Amino acid sequence: MSHSIKVTFGLKSVKLSGRMHILLSPLTTEMPIIEAVQYGFTNPPEVQLEFTGAVKSLASLGFVQSQLVSIIQDSLASMLVLPQRMVIPLDLGSYDYFDTYQPPMGMVRLAVASGRGFTVLQKMFLKDIPDVYCKLTLGARNPCRPAFQTTTKYDDLEPCWKDEHCDFILYDMDQKVYVEVFDEDKGPLDPDDELGKAEISVRDLFRKDGEVELELELDGVRTECFVTVTAELFHLSKELQSLTSAKYMGKNELCGLATIIVTRAFDIPIPKEDAATHVKVVYGEGSEHEQTFYTGTVTDYPGYDALNPMFDCAFQVPLTWAMQNERSSSSSSPKNSETNSESRRPSITTTPSHFKSLRNLSMRFLKVDNSKRNDITFILIDADGANGTTGHGELGRTTVTQDQLLDAYEHTVTETRVIGDGGVKLEFRVILSGIQSETEKLVWATLENTRLSRQQSSDTVFRSLYGGMHENNVVFRITALRG
Q1: Distances from the Cα of 243 to the Cαs of 50, 318, 348, 356, in angstroms?
Q2: How many CA atoms within 13 Å lie on the side-chain side of 446?
């Protein structure tokens, strides 16, 4: 004879605490003045849960609480933590996601240089000198780019991790750097012991000239153990020399960024009530570094146009030297390929006459080495409809090649392409960017200014105080209407 037991439980409250940013952009000259509102968390918020019923006592167990918090934080990170933001258009007549989109600030190279203050641990009947390693993250956890982990320094109370660093995409100077320090233990039944953790914003890190010593905390208590964190800032650039430069071929280093923006589709050739479309984006299809992204699915719903769906999604692909320069031929060994590439890589020069030739040289290397490994494919898919109808599958696809990006103005392709037999069109933008250190940025800016000044001195150009420009028999007059 069996008996059933009625159990009631629930979640009484969820409290989120953290810094939320709100962007009112872009501005217009007509009401409501702002095209769209964007909001989200700069860093993962702290989550506090309060339960009711039967699970109230169960939730007091630490592992249950931590698992639930981790699930909630992962869900928030996919929607509301940088680089993700919620976008609410205020003026659909003028709204354009291309104008609303906020690009990354650049890239930051982070490292845990050293540690001190660690002590001998008492374990059972033995004393253990800690085997120290660190995990380093910036902002929200990214499943495509997990936390950077240093090597383990065995039996070392003052570990040093020389030349161990990792590059991260930087979206906001107030993003936090999180450091977790562990003592490595051997065996599956002996998990690694946490020695402490610390955090600091990128802004505060650079206020200390890119190097700061942080004290670790364990369960909210200071441990008198310290780690030194360093940072170096890199800027995104339309110059692509970094993609072929041996300077950026180190382990865990980035040499550039591919930005993919999918805004909308037009003229979906199926009944409105059956439509449930999304876009699948594949970078480097069929290669070792293939990455896949998905937009949200748009269905027939009040306020949504299922036949002209708005996706408004942006994806970033961090580029490494290997992704841009590895050979597709298996006959060439990595060692020989690396040596040959090293010998022919262009280096920065301060000679203005080399400015254009250096740029063209990098373009030629990228085109020869590409072999379709860095092409970007857009696939428009109709899934099963909300009314239970069977989806139509793939409605069309198109590809943007790296050669097209290299040839495009400022290496940006913005198009509305017909991608299917039914006349469906897809609007998108792809941007290929290199990176520059502070020194490189200054050098290239100097070269560009020198080149422009020489070009202007060789031409007969007269300028007026009112912003007009006179060149031979052509007159241009520029007037500021409003500011």
Answers
A1: 50, 11, 13, 16
A2: 11
